[in-house]
Specification:
The protein is mostly helical. It has two domains: about 60 residues, Winged helix-like DNA-binding domain superfamily/Winged helix DNA-binding domain (Arc Repressor Mutant, subunit A), CATH 1.10.10.10; about 60 residues, Diphtheria Toxin Repressor, domain 2 (Orthogonal Bundle), CATH 1.10.60.10. The chain contains six helices and two strands. A two-stranded antiparallel sheet has the order 1-2. It is elongated and about 45 Å long.
């Protein structure tokens, strides 16, 4: 994996591939990824090539995209950051649950691991975000074998 910080776009694609592959862990088509990201198939295909070059994803033409262990780790970290931020914004700052997603989407890329740990502790090590979605723990494991959807 690259030593440079991953762009927000790369992180979003990895998270989306992870979510689309759940719960049956099937490879994801470029078309489905493009639709989910609201981009053209050509744009999605270009990003998939970049992810493959970074060894974050594997793509077999006409067989779909799957994440490498490194890509899955990044996706889970982004999901964890996002869901912890949603809960923190809702419970601690009183942001309406309907508004937390967009705020968390902006902040999830900037949060440090130290701040993530402090938020996790301050919230009592939660297992679910305000929408009821599971939050991976600090070791990026799902609570009670929940899926990552």
């Amino acid at each position: 994996m690259s030593q440079e910080p991953l762009t927000e776009a790369i992180q979003h694609y990895l998270r989306e591939i992870y979510k689309l592959a759940q719960p049956d862990e099937r490879p994801v088509s470029v078309t489905a990824l493009a639709r989910a990201q609201s981009v053209s198939p050509a744009s999605a295909s270009a990003m998939v090539k970049k992810l493959a070059a970074l060894k974050l994803a594997e793509h077999a033409p006409y067989r779909g995209i799957s994440l490498t262990p490194a890509g899955e780790r990044v996706a889970l970290e982004v999901i964890r950051h996002h869901r912890l931020l949603e809960l923190y914004l809702a419970e601690t700052l009183g942001v309406d649950v309907e508004d937390v997603h967009d705020e968390a989407d902006r902040l999830e890329h900037a949060i440090s691991e130290e701040l993530e740990a402090r938020i996790d502790q301050a919230l009592g090590f939660p297992t679910h975000d305000p929408h009821g979605d599971p939050i991976p723990d600090a070791n990026l494991r799902w609570p009670h074998a929940a899926s990552g959807r």
